[in-house]
Amino acid sequence: MEKNDSALLSKAFLNAGKLMGLTSSELSRVISCDISQLNTINPESDEGLRATYFIRSYEKLYGLLSGDKEEIKMWMKGYNSGTGGIPLQQIQEQDISGLTQVLKYLEAMP
Question: Which of 29, 44, 88, 105 could anchor a disulfide with 76, C-beta 3.0 to 4.6 Å?
Fold first, then answer.
């Protein structure tokens, strides 16, 4: 792993989180570690995988909702029958299954 990989992952993760309207504490729960450690995360670690899944979810959601930040925030905070829950809560679950469920749902969308 190169230092640039961690920096790139960190920047993309923080930008996606900002555009989704998530707080630092919400982002910390997404990756299951303190946000201050983000620059040192190995992209191949569990935390790195969670960050990558989050970024992929954001990218897909951004495309589906034409980049409308308010629509993205509402989608994240509302109940979604396709994911079986509230995406914002699901992506913050201790195990990765909620985040995986949200990502699978989004990636299945045309």
Answer: 88
d(CA 70, CA 35): 24
Question: Is residue 73 within 8 Å of 20, Cβ to Cβ?
Answer: yes
Question: CA end-to-end span of the chain, whole Å?
Answer: 33
Token pair belonging to 14: 């923080």
Query: Could you read off the pLDDT of 19-76 as tens digits, one per residue?
Result: 999 999 999 999 999 988 888 888 999 999 999 999 999 999 999 999 999 999 999 9
- As to burial, measured by CB atoms within 10 angstroms (0-12 exposed, 13-18 middle, 19+ buried), residue 55 is middle
Residues 6+ apart with CB under 8 A from 3: none
| Domain coordinates in residue numbering, the chain | 3-108
